[in-house]
Design a protein that fits this description.
mainly beta; about 130 residues
Length: about 130
């Protein structure tokens, strides 16, 4: 998997409910579906009982102007909250300036971190290599 710091939402970000934005450049420039969205749990989650991630596009960094949900991950629960759990999804075409990542946490996370971003290829998890 090739990673570019400019395409990462998070590196070792706390799981406790987050909103992160990526500036994709000029509004309306779009990009094709050669990119994949990924999330990888890098530190076991404690306290929270479930997490799901929603990827949206928007015209502003706060995600309040023309926010368009692109997809929501399956809900991670129980054993899925452990290190090495990956989510890999093919990106749809996007024509808005920002990509917004929201983590919806059930319960109160007292520990847990994840990486999330865009890449050109999928991998199960770099923790399993």
């Amino acid at each position: 998997m090739l990673l570019d710091n400019g395409l990462l939402f998070a590196k070792a970000l706390d799981v406790g409910g987050t909103h992160k934005a990526l500036d994709m450049g000029e509004k309306g420039s779009g990009f094709n579906t050669d990119l994949r969205f990924f999330v990888d749990i890098t530190e076991e989650v404690a306290g929270a009982t479930a997490i799901k991630f929603t990827l949206s596009s928007a015209d502003d960094e706060a995600g309040t102007v023309n926010k368009t949900p692109l997809f929501t991950s399956h809900t991670l629960e129980g054993v899925s909250l452990k290190v090495g759990t990956p989510i890999n999804l093919v990106m749809p075409s996007v024509n808005q300036k920002y990509l917004i990542l929201d983590a919806d946490v059930t319960g109160t996370a007292t520990a847990g971190k994840y990486w999330a971003g865009l890449t050109t290829s999928a991998q199960e998890s770099w923790h399993n290599q």
